[in-house]
Amino acid sequence: MGIQSFFKLNRLTIPTAEPFCIGNVALAINFSVDNAALNTPGGQRFDKELGNDAMIGVLQNAQAFIENAFSMAPTKNIAQVTLHVESFDGVAFSYFGGDIHLSSDYVENNNPGNSQALKTEITGVLYHEETHVLQNSNGAPSGVIEGVADFIRLRAGYAVWERRQGGKWDDGYSTTAFFFDWIDSTQTDDFVNKLNQKLGITPWNVNFFVDLTGKDVDTLWQEYQNSI
């Protein structure tokens, strides 16, 4: 979504004090916040209750957490991560570059009157979106991509969902995140780390599950469903 020319920009850029590493390769990352919604209630709430400095800190912490979670992966060369606060429907989105887009409308309406709950929610959203910046995709279906991002949010302690039976393994988001968490906890240590590593080397193949666990995905899904 383009930034309209009449928006007042509130931009802050802070470089990391130290480079961070993926795959043992040091990368210098600059972090920016571009609040293009200061003329909206949500943009003003972001400025007052969240703040550029604090959200850059969240992004830095997310980088470190994801670095550890994806420690086996080939390096992605990301030099700049920018958080754009804009007015649009939905919550947030990002592509496989360095731009994360956060809806000021969502900020406006999320947990009104409760700044701490808002901070917790937006932190979880940013961990999810930051994962998209750094994860390998290589033809993986959207359910896998979104599931990995919510897995990171879950493991970081910012999940707001409950584990439930039903659905399909590749529904994505929390359904797939909890499934991957179960595989990681009961079948194969560092499953998501290894999955992301594979996607950095070779295109997606559903047989990755057999390679990493010795079981096909349908068998794993049924065992997982039986465990809930």
In brief, what are we looking at here?
This protein has helices at residues 41-50, 52-69, 104-109, 115-134, 142-156, 173-186, 191-199, 208-213, 217-227; strands spanning 10-15, 20-22, 25-27, 30-35, 80-86, 92-94, 99-103. By secondary structure, the protein is α/β, with parallel strands linked by helices.
Q: Could you characterize the architecture of this molecule?
A:
InterPro entries: Uncharacterised_BSP (IPR007541). This is Plant basic secretory protein. It comes from Riccia sorocarpa. There is one protein chain. With 228 residues, the protein is α/β, with parallel strands linked by helices. It contains 9 helices and 7 strands. It folds into 2 domains: 10-134, Collagenase (Catalytic Domain), CATH 3.40.390; 142-227, no CATH class. Helices cover 48% and strands 14% of the residues. It has a 5-stranded mixed β-sheet. The termini are far apart. Mean pLDDT is 89; it is low at 1-26.
Using brief descriptors, characterize the structure shown:
single chain, disordered N terminus, Uncharacterised_BSP, 228 residues, alpha/beta, 2 domains, Plant basic secretory protein, Collagenase (Catalytic Domain)
Query: Biggest β-sheet: count, sense, barrel?
Result: 5 strands, mixed
Radius of gyration: 18 Å
Q: What is the molecular shape?
A: globular
Write down the domain tally: 2
Strand order of the largest sheet: 1-4-5-7-6
Assign the CATH architecture of the largest domain: 3-Layer(aba) Sandwich
SSE order: EEEEHHEEEHHHHHHH
The third-level CATH topology of the largest domain is: Collagenase (Catalytic Domain)
Question: What is the multimeric organization of the chains shown?
Answer: single chain
Structural class of the secondary structure composition? alpha/beta
InterPro entries: Uncharacterised_BSP (IPR007541)
Protein name: Plant basic secretory protein
